[in-house]
Design goal:
The protein is α/β, with parallel strands linked by helices. It has a domain of about 170 residues: P-loop containing nucleotide triphosphate hydrolases (Rossmann fold). The protein has ten helices and ten strands. It has a six-stranded mixed β-sheet, with helices on both faces. Strands 2-1-4-5 form a four-stranded antiparallel β-sheet, with helices on one face.
Length: about 250
C-alpha cells in the first residue's frame, strides 16, 4: 500500500510540555485513518503537524522526521503543503460572504480569475461535498445562513476547491446533530475514492464506521495502530482494549 505520510521518531513540545513522544507511523493513500483517544492525548496536535499548522505557535519545538510523498515537509513552502493537505476544523467556519465566494476564495487567491473556470470549480467542489443540490439556487446568499451541517459540507467543498491530495478533519461532526453527522460520514466514504482522509474523532462508533485504519493515542504516544477491524475486534494492547470497551477515557 502506498504511503502519503511517513513519520519517524516525531517529538513535539510546547515550551516544557512534551506533547508528542516518538511517533512512528505511515498513513496510506486513499484510505481513511482515524485518530482516537481521550481529550488532551495529542491527536489534534499530531493532525496539525501534517500540514505544519503548529508552525504558527511560537513555543512549539518539533524533532524527528515527517515526509509527505517522500519529501521532508520542512523543505516545502508552508502554503504549498497546505494546498495539498487541506483542513476542516471542529466547528464550521465559513467566511462571511456568499456560498459561491467561499468556495471560490482559494482558487482566486491562486490567481484564477476566469469566471467560467471559477464557476466550474465551485460547482464541482459543491457536488463532491454533496451540497450542490441543496444550494444551487442560492449561491449568492450569505453562507452564514446555512445550517451547521451544510456549513461543514461547505468547508469541505472549500478544501476540495484547492485540489488537495489529503483532507485533514479535526472532529468534523462534534458540533453537528445526528442526521448531519450521518451525511458527513457518508461523504467521507465517498471522498476516499479521490482523497486521503485523516480524521480525529472522539466517537469510536464513527471511527469504526468510516475508517480503514485507526491509531489509539494516549498521553502523547501511539499505543496501537492497526487496520480498524483488527484494532476494534482484536486489540493487541490492554490499554487499547480498556479504552474501546469504556473502562477508562
Amino acid at each position: 500500500m502506498e504511503n502519503v505520510f511517513k513519520v519517524d521518531k516525531l517529538n513535539l513540545s510546547y515550551g516544557d510540555n512534551h506533547v508528542l513522544k516518538d511517533i512512528d507511523m505511515e498513513l496510506y493513500k486513499n484510505q481513511v485513518t482515524a485518530f482516537i483517544g481521550p481529550s488532551g492525548c495529542g491527536k489534534s496536535t499530531f493532525l496539525r503537524c501534517l500540514n505544519r499548522m503548529n508552525d504558527l505557535i511560537p513555543s512549539c519545538r518539533i524533532s524527528g522526521s515527517l515526509e509527505y510523498n517522500e519529501k521532508d515537509i520542512n523543505m516545502m513552502q508552508a502554503m504549498e503543503l497546505r494546498t495539498k493537505v487541506g483542513m476542516v476544523f471542529q466547528s464550521p467556519n465559513p467566511f462571511p460572504m456568499s456560498i459561491f465566494d467561499n468556495v471560490a476564495y482559494g482558487p482566486r487567491c491562486q490567481g484564477i480569475k476566469n469566471k467560467q473556470k471559477l464557476h466550474n470549480i465551485v460547482v464541482n467542489a459543491l457536488q463532491k461535498a454533496a451540497l450542490y443540490d441543496e444550494v444551487k439556487d442560492r449561491l449568492k446568499d450569505n453562507a452564514l445562513g446555512l445550517s451547521g451541517g451544510q456549513q461543514q459540507r461547505l468547508c469541505i467543498a472549500r478544501a476540495i476547491a484547492m485540489e488537495p491530495d489529503v483532507i485533514l478533519m479535526d472532529e468534523p461532526t462534534s458540533a453537528l446533530d445526528p442526521i448531519s453527522t450521518l451525511k458527513i460520514e457518508e461523504l467521507i466514504l465517498e471522498l476516499k475514492e479521490d482523497y486521503t482522509i485523516i480524521i480525529v474523532t472522539h466517537n469510536m462508533g464513527q471511527a469504526a464506521r468510516v475508517s480503514d485504519f485507526t491509531a489509539f493515542f494516549l498521553l502523547g504516544e501511539v499505543v496501537e495502530y492497526a487496520p480498524t477491524v483488527d484494532l476494534f475486534k482484536n486489540p493487541k494492547n490492554k490499554k487499547t482494549e480498556d479504552y474501546i470497551t469504556g473502562r477508562f477515557g
